[in-house]
Every structure is written in C-alpha cells, then in structure tokens.
Write a structure and sequence with these properties.
It is a single chain. This protein has one domain. The chain is 15% helix and 30% strand. The longest helix has 12 residues. The protein is globular, with a radius of gyration of 16 Å.
Length: 142
C-alpha cells in the first residue's frame, strides 16, 4: 500500500515591520494610535505550542481599516520560564515588536509608514522584513 504525503504551502501575503522600542506593548499601541491615526485594540494573546510541549503566549493588538489589517505582536513571550527564553521569531530576537500588515489596496506606502514609525521618540529602529526568508516564518501563521 502506497503512502500519501500532505504538502501545505502557506501564503505569506503580508508585509512585516520589525521595531525596536523601549516601551511596553500597550504604550507602543497607544503611541501608534496617536501618531499614525490607527486604532490598535488589545485582543487575546496568541498561544504557540512547540514540539517539546513548551507553550508561549504572545501579546497581540489588532487594527482593522477598510482595506488593511495591522497586527502589533510582541516578539518576546509573556510567560517566560527561567529555562525557556522564547521569542516569536528567534532569529530576530534583537527586535522587540513586529507589525504585520495585510493590505488589500494598492495605495499603502510601506516606506512612508516605516518613516513615520521612526519619528516616534520611543522607537529606536524600524525596518521591513521579508517573512518568506525567516527560518521560523511558520510562527507568523495564526
């Protein structure tokens, strides 16, 4: 009897911005709301279970507009154990937050968005990241 193998290809049809900021996630969401005229709202944390039965909980804020979905994600897990230092994207552990942008319009300017983020006093650095090049890109599928 032959074996069948299920192959799944995920669509990483979103843009990702990595951000370094010296504030808590709720304060960053508030600052982004004020400076970029967004409306981030705290939603349930995202829980990711790893193979070794370790569970991490990632802070999650969402902002929906007519043609876009912005998701502010903390890179560092909230429920850290001393022996398990977990990150959403371990290869980018020097970044504090990620903003995932699902854009259904052709008018969104990512470079202008990043420039406006860099003007925020608490933000040290912001850069665009290609999610398809990340080793742990599967952690970004919810």
């Amino acid at each position: 009897m032959g074996k069948n193998k299920l192959t799944i290809k995920y669509d990483f049809g979103f843009q990702l911005v990595a951000v370094n900021a010296s504030v808590k996630e709720y304060k960053l969401a508030w600052i982004l709301n004020r400076n970029l005229e967004l409306d981030f709202i705290k939603t349930d944390n995202i829980e990711i279970v790893f193979v070794n039965d370790k569970l991490i909980s990632i802070s999650n804020f969402i902002c929906r507009t007519e043609h876009q979905l912005f998701r502010l994600l903390s890179n560092k897990a909230e429920n850290l154990e001393e022996t398990f230092n977990a990150f959403l994207i371990p290869e980018l552990k020097n970044f504090d937050y990620f903003i995932a942008i699902n854009d259904e319009s052709d008018t969104f300017d990512l470079n202008a968005f990043i420039s406006r983020i860099k003007q925020i006093p608490f933000v040290q650095f912001a850069v665009s990241v290609d999610p398809t090049t990340l080793k742990s890109k599967d952690n970004l599928i919810f």
